[in-house]
Specification:
This protein is α/β, with parallel strands linked by helices. It contains 8 helices and 8 strands, in the order E-H-E-H-E-H-E-H-E-E-H-E-H-E-H-H. Bound molecules: D-xylitol-5-phosphate and zinc ion. One of its GO terms (cellular component) is cytoplasm.
Length: about 220
């Protein structure tokens, strides 16, 4: 995969025209589609499930779909999302009683696996499962809503996660989610992130290609 991936979060897209929105943002240069699943239990909001993922595949979306599960429990949705066409499935370790098993279930279902860490959470849960993750996702806002401000303490955690990945020698992507924009993407990349979720920064602008291009030129500096 490319060094840097831009992953628009469809949470901020127009759900009444979702297929078209995803087509447009991919045509505008996005690499992967970030798909936020909220259950009104783990987080105080309710969004979309496997049927919508599968509808995007039927619509013709071939780009990787990065499913971010903000649900508790986790396990019973894994196979459903794999069958619906998910590429990555990430979940919050505090939402699964048996994290190792959930990670294994994701890989057994043919998807890439990942753990997500809320702003206050240490990375301790990674210690014994580094060989079972393909992605580490750091939340730079409290999960549940788009349009919040980036929490600066996440930069230190990115440095820590980058060091863990480099020491492990495994091929693991480091994703950041929340409050990412062309203004802060360069310092986020400098702290070690390689995969950038951006919802409101992209979908709240009329010209998706211009924002994505701005992000890429910030990454190139
Ligand atoms: C928040 C979601 C994010 C959200 C990011 O819980 O996980 O993916 O859409 O939105 P922005 O980029 O607007 O902060
Ligand atoms: Zn997300």
């Amino acid at each position: 995969m490319a060094e840097y991936l831009i992953a628009p979060s469809i949470l901020s897209a127009d759900f009444a025209r979702l297929g078209e929105e995803v087509d447009n943002v991919l045509a505008a240069g996005a690499d992967i589609v970030h798909f936020d699943v909220m259950d009104n239990h783990y987080v105080p909001n309710l969004t979309i499930g496997p049927m919508v993922c599968s509808a995007l595949r039927k619509h013709g979306v071939t780009a990787p779909i990065d499913v971010h599960l903000m649900v508790d429990p986790v396990d019973r949705l894994i196979v459903d999302f794999a069958e619906a066409g998910a590429s990555f499935i990430t979940f919050h370790p505090d939402a699964s009683t048996h994290v190792d098993r959930s990670l294994q279930m994701i890989r057994d279902a043919g998807c890439k696996s990942g753990l997500v860490f809320n702003p206050h959470m240490s990375l301790d849960a990674l210690k014994y499962v580094m060989d079972k993750v393909d992605m580490i996702l750091l939340m730079s806002v409290n999960p549940g809503f788009g349009g919040q401000s980036f929490i600066p303490a996440t930069l230190d955690k990115l440095l820590e996660a980058r060091a863990l990945i480099d020491e492990s020698g495994f091929d693991i992507r480091l994703e950041i989610d929340g409050g990412v924009s062309p203004k802060n993407i360069a310092e986020i990349a400098a702290a070690g992130a390689d995969t950038f979720v951006a919802g409101s920064a992209i979908f709240n602008q009329p010209d998706y290609a211009a924002v994505i291009q701005q992000m890429r030129s910030e990454l190139a500096t």
